[in-house]
């Protein structure tokens, strides 16, 4: 006798499996983060907990410091020569800026997907997924690499579209596919957190929706922090939200943060209400 799966069983079966060796979900916490470019302070004592296995959206008008804050979360801020920083960023309680810790460990644990899809255009789709392994010096056999390529492309929602052309150049994919390839590349080094800086702003609505679905599925295995200007996107995908503001040339601060449904449904601060309802920004 065959049994008909329930709707829930069917939905779960359709989701790509979380790999058995996936690292445990991690919480990211910024504590009193202040940032400067030269003499100019652009963030002032920003503290925020980004819960494990959740999607946190950073919202706010242009120039309030969202991207700077995101780049601080994986030590990219320090790549700018004039940049300085105070405060702590804790990954499961350990400061990623601790001088004892290696920069590469922070970048591997906390991956980044950028606004503009940036696959290596001449490299094949397969090589793009595996590129991070080379950078981090990770050794893997041919069969392990094949399994990793399939697993990462599946979890990034791209496998069925590219399985027959893994040796074609990554640059030949559509913009939305390239962005999912970049997500697959980030996943290959088994990050614990994925930072996404306006990952859909260069994409059409259909590709945007696919990336959003991918994000929601990935949150089962990796903590996600996303910068977005799209309030509907923040409301659709995120569990928690932080509203940044830099009023009249002052450094950026978090005006309000909390559960996304509360931030959109019953914001405590009038400025949050004005922003999420499109009255400025
Ligand atoms: N490399 C840099 N050198 C000097 N100043 C910078 C640099 N990057 C950003 N800034 C300044 O820091 C402030 C915060 O910029 P940031 O890009 O973090 O804001 P944002 O909220 O992400 O803006 P947007 O939504 O437009 O991307 C801005 O005043 C910006 O001009």
Automatic annotation (TrEMBL):
One of its GO terms (molecular function) is phosphate transmembrane transporter activity. Keywords: ATP-binding, Nucleotide-binding, Translocase, Transport. GO terms for biological process: phosphate ion transmembrane transport. CDD domains: ABC_PstB_phosphate_transporter. Residues 26-276 form the ABC transporter domain. One of its GO terms (cellular component) is membrane. Pfam families: ABC_tran. This is ATP-binding cassette domain-containing protein.
